[in-house]
Each structure stands twice: as structure tokens, then as C-alpha cells.
Amino acid sequence: MLSAREHGHIAQVWDLIAGHEAPFGAELLLRLFTVYPSTKIYFGHLSASLDETMLLSHGQRMLTAVGVAVQHVHNLRAALSRLADLHAFVLRVDPANFPLLIQCFQVVLASHLQDEFTVEMQAAWDKFLTGIAVVLTEKYR
């Protein structure tokens, strides 16, 4: 899936955000809900006011899953199988939402990392996040 160089870009960016999963994830969710309000339907457990504690908590869980994917980039299916089952069979998230999440995540990365988030890094992350989305949607078939 990823070349050695792309894998290096993924790891380099992850090193910059590791330890800050909750705030990055909360910002990602807030951006997703603002730009694509229809996606909030899957987050009924978050209050109408988008309680910061709940956003941080769910953001932490989301980015922790991304961290697992970074560690298992060569075997995403095995690493994300339970998460794929959850999204397909329990939460029944519309798979069309995953590309929206990817877009928002890349905007968050670019806004925080700025010049450190090079074009090559963005391309590698796009490919990596798309790979995650593919794994998460395979169970829908």
C-alpha cells in the first residue's frame, strides 16, 4: 500500500501529533460537524452544545485508532477489524462519511503543522487515511 518513503512521512507526522490525540481529535470532530452538519447524526451521545469533555474523549478514541493504524500500517485489516465491525454492524455509519472525515483531518493537520506538513506528507496521509477508510467500509459489502 505505502512505499517506504510514504511510511516514513506517516510516522514523521504521527510523531508530531502523538500525545495530543484528544485535542486534535476534538478539533477534527468539531470541524466535521461544522462543515458537514449531517454527520452529527452518528454522535447523539454528544450534547447539542458539543460538550468539550465529550469531544475530547471521542477525539481521543478516534485518534488512538489512527495511532494503532500507524503502528500496523502493513496490516490494517487485522488491526482495524473490530473497529470495522463496530462501524458496519453496530453503528451503521454511512461509508460516504469517511471521505469527509479524511478531508477534515487533513485540514486539521495542515492548520497545525503548516510548513512541516509538506505536499509529500499530505499525499502520504491521504493515501494512508483512504486505506483506513477502505478497511472500515469493507464489512459493508
TrEMBL record:
Biological process, per Gene Ontology: hydrogen peroxide catabolic process
GO molecular function: haptoglobin binding; heme binding; metal ion binding; organic acid binding; oxygen binding; oxygen carrier activity; peroxidase activity
SUPFAM superfamilies found in the cross-reference section: Globin-like (SSF46458)
Coiled coil: none
Any one Pfam family match given in the protein's UniProt record, by short name: Globin
InterPro entries: Globin (IPR000971), Globin-like_sf (IPR009050), Globin/Proto (IPR012292), Hemoglobin_a-typ (IPR002338), Hemoglobin_oxygen_transport (IPR050056)
GO cellular component, one term: blood microparticle
Recorded family membership: Belongs to the globin family.
Protein name (database record): Hemoglobin subunit mu
Gene: Hbm
